[in-house]
Amino acid sequence: MTTSFPAYQELLARLRRIHVLGTVTGVLGWDEQVNLPPGAAARRGEQMSLLAELAHAEATAPALGAALADCEAAGPVGEAAVVVAAARRDLDRSVKLPADLVAEKARLSSEAYHAWAAARAARDFSAFAPYLEKHLALALREAELLGYGDRPYDLAIDRHDPGLDAARIGALFAELRAGLVPLARRIDERVRAERARGERPVALRGFDVDAQRRVARAVTARLGFDYERGRLDVSLHPFCEGSGDDVRLTTRFDADNPLDSLYSSIHEAGHGMYEQGLPAQHAGTALGVAAGMAVHESQSRLWENQVARSRAFWTWLEPEYRAAFPGPLAGVSVDALHAAVNEVEPGGLIRVDSDEVHYNLHILLRFELEKRLFAGELAVADLPAAWDDLCEELLGRRPAHAGEGVLQDVHWSGGAFGYFPSYTLGNMIAAQLWVAARAALPGLEEDFTRGEFGRLLGWLRETVHAHGRREDAFALTRRATGAELGAGALLAYLQERYGA
User: Fold this and answer.
1) Which residue in 168, 275, 354, 472 is deepest, having the highest Cβ count within 10 Å?
2) Calpha distance 313→445 (Å, rounded)
């Protein structure tokens, strides 16, 4: 079968329609968190529900199934085989889900987002719990319908990272925990000793928000995010939405926490550059979408951490940063500023503000709690107490309230179970990609001192972005780095940067 085969062209056209509907839903979802008037929440829920029904109808259309069957009968090869196999997988799943369930989930996600935002502000988990219970019930029902009734959490993971499951992730996380917990404890002891001697990181306060906005845009553009095809806005929880020629980034600004806006912008720009680097000619097919959220997170975390927290990066940025904020940085030395960028805070409770040493402990916590929820071992009502207990075990502190505990993340309001493991998998992949990139691109960090990032972005475009979803996270890592995915590179990186 050639790519000019009529049934294949019909298949591509129908996949394109599904993709376009998805982009409309994405823009509405972005608008809901950035621009939506408070009184319009119910209307937005209706809109999202209707769009979900329309997308489901397209995804289960008999004509799509007929074109797919004709392609399979003709024997697709090469890239066509990748597209056809992924389309079959998606169609077989979609036809097993009733349209009313799909619409209900979309409506619930919209309602639950607003309930979560209010509950978080009020530090009241009980106000959000009913929505979380409904999301969990829908997830379990979907698992039954799709043949995952005996392992529903595997389906939740597979939705974000095709081909992965809880057992494979659990083995990797056990390897990481064995090395990370003692490393974090050693670093915590050193930091506490430094604090006891009065050695404290410099406080960064009074950074003009408009200047922060200009810096965030300038830095992300310099890294390679194309603002002709994207934008940067403000939301309660930073995120990236969109693909191809319309990618929306969001961040948040605080005059007394300027590094939060800078690093969340860089993180989301990493996602955005991946989306902008996917093959546009294959949009809507497996050749033109990300390999999964673990690989997606590897792109954002690599730019945020390995690149933007490095001494080389700040050799370039520091003069420009001082020029943007001359008052707040007066008297702050180069070393003090770089120390603030890489500050380690023992017992930090907020995941998105967590340093690199402790970040993955936050993910281990969420992975364990999600497993218990899906196994029926933990009731939603008991989630705050379980969260606090595990937080104390892993991070050494108990949250003072639900806002800095169980309510801190937006993900569960959208029913995005199984997403959290992607962050740590992404950190592992990023560490291995970093080793491979430095080997492939001699003098890479010298580029950063001059504010030049094109060689790294070009290498990622060629090594990761161009391949779409031809491979799962494990296969992509093996090809791109020459090694199986594991915890070793990440632990070595953390030891090198923070252990001394």
Assistant:
1) 275
2) 8
Measured CA to CA in angstroms, residue 244 lies from 283, 290, 303, 488 at distances of: 8, 11, 19, 34
Instruction: List the structure tokens of 254.
Output: 């605080």
* Residues acting as catalytic residues: 268
For residues 471 and 159, what is the distance between their CA atoms, to the nearest angstrom? 15
For position 201, what pLDDT does the model report? 86
Q: 174: buried, middle or exposed (CB in 10 Å: 19+, 13-18, 0-12)?
A: exposed
**SS3 of residue 233 by DSSP:** strand
The string of pLDDT tens digits covering residues 413-453 is: 999 999 999 999 999 999 999 999 999 999 999 999 999 99
Per residue in 460-499, pLDDT (tens digit) is 999 999 999 999 999 999 999 999 999 999 999 999 999 8
273: which residues sit within 8 A by CB, 6+ positions away? Answer: 223, 224, 225, 299, 303, 457, 460
Phi-psi region of 396 (alpha: psi -120 to 50; beta: other; left: phi over 0): left
The helix, strand and coil proportions of the chain, stated in percent and rounded to the nearest 5, come to 70, 5, 25
Q: What is the Rg, in whole angstroms, of the alpha carbon atoms belonging to the chain?
A: 23
Structure-token pair, residue 450: 């001059």
Q: What is the pTM of this model?
A: 0.96
Backbone angles phi, psi at 217, to 5 degrees: -70, -45
Degrees to nearest 5, angle at CA 210 with 207 and 211? 60
Q: Is the dihedral of CA 73, 77, 83, 86 positive or negative?
A: positive
Distance in angstroms (rounded) separating the CA atoms of residues 414 and 396 = 29
